[in-house]
Every structure is written in structure tokens, then in C-alpha cells.
Write a structure and sequence with these properties.
alpha/beta; Rossmann fold; eight-stranded mixed sheet; 12 helices; 15% strand
Length: 291
């Protein structure tokens, strides 16, 4: 037992939380794998640009202390050949709507991180009466396009990269927002590169010119938008502009966090989600939230 514990602590094993239940939803355009944690009000959790639901395991595990967390894989995550048929953000939002219907949920809470957060907000704008509440982390009115992001977009689109590339490591260091334990760094980078490079490039192209502020006014569900103060992809101005466009929005800044706050500080981000959703539940009619 002691040896096993030491091995877990010296590797990335303790970042890989067990997934209680797995399933497969037969949607119109793909079969969506999904996993579930916990019990309680249903909460749909949407993964980011890369890494799939496995990258969210520690975060989902904390959220599951109060919610029934359901996390689907996004289109293309486990089958890069899905890119042979063109699809955009609207199609991915429709996938999520169809998944919620397939699960038999009426007005679930919808949460997302990074790219998944953008999809959650787009769902709220497209289907205003579907989410009972929305909480996202790592999203602003639009993503910043600094030099490193431009290079990443170009390289991901045209050149195959090994996971141990110095360029890749530098890029992930920027996303972390500061130095992290080596085992956490190894886990996140390894998991992100389980997503095919072509899928990451496709998703980058979908969001590089997307401005959420123009559509945010359509969202009627109570919405909490969080971003770390070290998030190089979401500036304070971008966060403020998005939140000011929401009729029922709340802005949260996560001190000392980067873009991958859900992975580096899962307890902190989950506690902020919990606090927001508890406030929303108190304001909602009995039984109307997260059905």
C-alpha cells in the first residue's frame, strides 16, 4: 500500500480520477461517449479544445459532491475522420442540445471550460430557455491573438508536432499561468495530445474570429463567467466586455490562475461554481433548476 501511494504521488496517477459510469449516446451525426460522476441536480460539463472529458476528471470529481455531472465528448474527439464532413460551431451546439434531449433533461445547468465554455454560451444564445444556469471558465468576448497564439494556430494547421516539442512545452507553460508540479504538467500535456492535431486545428479555426459579445444579449439564463488573472487568452477587457453584454451575468476573476485553472486549481474553480449555482438556486422557484 505504501509503495502504491508513493507511485501515485510520483506520477500523474492521482490526477486521473475514476469515472463511475460511462455511456454512449447515439446522436444524429456521431456517437457521443460520455461519463458521469455523482448524484443531484444534473450538470452538463463541456470539455475544452483538447484533452476530452479525461482532462476534466479531477474538476468533475469536485463538482460531483453536489451535482450529477455529465460530460460528453465533443464531435471529432475520438474520431478525427469526422472532419471529412464539414461542421461548425452551430453544428456542435446542436450536438449538445441533442445530447441533452437524449439524456431526457429539461433545463439542466450547463458549464464549460475554454472551448467548452464558448459552446455553453453559444447554447444559451441559441436555445435561451434550455439551460437553467450557465457557468464557464476561460472565456472572454474573444480570445486574444498574441504572437504565441498566432504561431500555434499556424503550426497546428500545417506541421505535425511531437508532444515533447520545446515549442509545445512553452505554449502549455503559457496556458498554465505559472510553474506547476511536473506530474501535473506531464498529465495535462499528455492528455491534450490524445486529441488529434487536425481536430485541435479545426477548433482553433472555429473560434479565432468569434466575438461572443454580439450574441451574449440573447442569453437569459443566469450566467457566471470566470477567468484567471494570468490567463493570456482572456484579457480583463475581454472578460468585462462579455459580462457587460449579459443581461443576467456575473464576472469572476480567479487570482493566481491561468487558462487551465480547472486543472491547476480544481477546488477553487469548483467552489466558485458552487457558490454561484447556490445563489441561483435560492432565487429560482422550487424545482425549476437543473431538471
Amino acid at each position: 500500500m505504501i509503495a502504491s501511494d508513493l507511485w501515485r504521488r510520483s506520477s500523474d496517477a492521482h490526477y486521473r480520477r475514476s469515472i463511475a459510469r460511462r455511456g454512449m449516446a447515439d446522436l444524429r451525426h456521431y456517437s457521443a461517449e460520455f461519463c458521469e460522476w455523482g448524484a443531484g441536480p444534473p450538470l452538463i460539463l463541456l470539455p475544452g479544445l483538447a484533452g476530452g472529458y479525461e482532462l476534466l476528471a479531477a474538476f468533475a470529481d469536485v463538482l460531483s459532491r453536489r451535482f450529477h455531472v455529465i460530460c460528453p465528448q465533443l464531435r471529432g474527439e475520438t474520431d478525427c475522420f469526422a472532419l471529412r464532413k464539414r461542421f461548425g460551431l452551430r453544428d456542435m451546439v446542436e450536438d449538445i442540445r441533442e445530447f441533452i434531449e437524449w439524456m431526457g433533461l429539461e433545463r439542466p445547468i450547463v458549464c464549460g471550460v475554454s472551448f467548452g465554455g464558448l459552446l455553453a454560451l453559444e447554447l444559451g444564445a441559441t436555445c435561451p430557455n434550455l439551460p437553467s444556469a450557465i457557468a464557464v471558465q476561460g472565456v472572454g468576448a474573444r480570445y486574444e491573438r498574441g504572437l504565441m497564439q498566432r504561431i500555434a494556430s499556424i503550426v497546428l494547421s500545417g506541421y505535425p508536432l511531437p508532444p515533447n516539442s520545446p515549442f509545445v512545452n512553452q505554449f502549455f507553460n503559457l496556458l498554465f499561468g505559472g510553474q506547476q508540479p511536473r506530474d501535473l504538467f506531464n498529465f495535462v500535456t499528455h492528455q491534450c495530445w490524445q486529441t488529434d492535431q487536425s481536430v485541435m486545428a479545426h477548433r482553433l479555426r472555429l473560434i479565432e474570429r468569434r466575438d461572443l459579445a454580439a450574441r451574449a444579449s440573447r442569453i437569459i439564463a443566469p450566467t457566471c463567467v470566470m477567468a484567471g488573472d494570468r490567463d493570456l487568452l482572456v484579457s480583463s477587457q475581454s472578460l468585462e466586455r462579455l459580462c457587460s453584454s449579459l443581461d443576467n451575468g456575473r464576472e469572476e476573476t480567479l487570482d493566481g490562475c491561468g487558462h487551465l485553472a480547472f486543472a491547476t486549481h480544481p477546488e477553487l474553480v469548483a467552489s466558485r461554481f458552487h457558490a454561484f449555482l447556490t445563489t441561483v438556486a435560492a432565487d429560482c422557484p422550487s424545482g425549476s433548476m437543473g431538471r
